[in-house]
User: Fold this.
Amino acid sequence: MGLNTKCAKCGCQDSFLTTPPSCPTAVGCPTEECSNIQFAQCVAYTGGNLLCGESIVVPTDTNLNEALSNIIDYFCASVANISTTSVVAGVGITVTQVVVGNNTQYTIANAAIGTKKFVKEFTGVTFDGVTLTILGTEITACGLLTDACGSETNEYSDFTFNIMYLSATGSWIGLTNETGVSIEVNNVSGDISVTLGVAPIDPPVVVRITIIG
Assistant:
């Protein structure tokens, strides 16, 4: 960058400024670092155009007063055009804010996205054709009926079922593939009926039905 005091815009072309009306006389400098103070409008920038990207911020042959004004205007306009995003927590959504140095980092978690598990236990079950029912309203309240990929609609049957009972020895025994166990889903109400038609169990046991969706 070149700075000089031969300022055509202040009324002089080939000689240093004296006292034209638009360029007041330099005044004494109050510090030891300089002999006098030059007014910004009487100092010219003679280097190449100053760019930000492809935009010219300070053209060549611009006096210092205009150059500073151009820079401030460009900066303020750029700041005003910075887009902002509002992060608002809602049902099932949590927002965690962490300040790292000069940056603020937001972590957004949506509990409604991803696999969900619904579990219901039935006590005193003896099998022998008994039917256990899970209401569609329970499935809906758990949030299992979320959007699915590859299909325009979600069906109440779009789940993975696991059925187990607690034996007298304290072990869980699976019945999902057991002969005589059937699962029926009402696609209108969403009610799920699990019929245990295997041999009767005595004493009665706890049956745990797990639905993944």
